[in-house]
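Hey L., structure's done. Input below.
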Amino acid sequence: MIHLHVHPDNPQQRLIRQAADQLKAGKVIAHLTDTAYALGCHLGDKSALERIARIRKLPENHQYTLLCRDLSDIATYAKVSNAHYRLLKAHTPSACTFILPATSELPRRLMHPKKKTIGIRVPTNPVTQALLEALEEPLITSTLILPGEDLPLDDPQDIETRIGHQIDLLLDSGFGTRSVSTIVDMSGDNPVLVRQGVCQVDTLIG
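Output:
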């Protein structure tokens, strides 16, 4: 496993490009988001996604999250009404994941098998944003919560010790938090709060 130490506020571009190259090569990485660490892989890589599912022992109907640079990326992979777009614009970037109907541009294996939805987030974390810029496309992620545990991993050394042999690269930008993102389902007529995390969405839910 490659262990890269990057500055949390001003990540070194050389290291970010190295991480992006690993993703494009089909590797699985661990990286910090707005909250805890997550496992990430390239959008179109089926085998890398299967590795993430094995590490976390995820069910087939797991709702993955697509990390996007900005709202322009969201429109490619999710169907957004004008009303929902205004709500999204008011609440991004943030530690909030929005569940939206997927478009045909999204590989079917990434959608919820029955609802045909995808979770989408525009992160605030500088390292994640730099990684997305280097990739020039969204990143598929899943919060790094190990099987049988309730809280995500937030310590890079702990990540290396426990799953270093199962991932290809650790993008270490220091400690995260053991908190989670807020999840709002916007696939229906009205937004529904699925999980209350660190992001407050009282004005969105109404």
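The chain has one domain: 2-205. Residues 13-24 form the longest helix (12 residues).

-- N.
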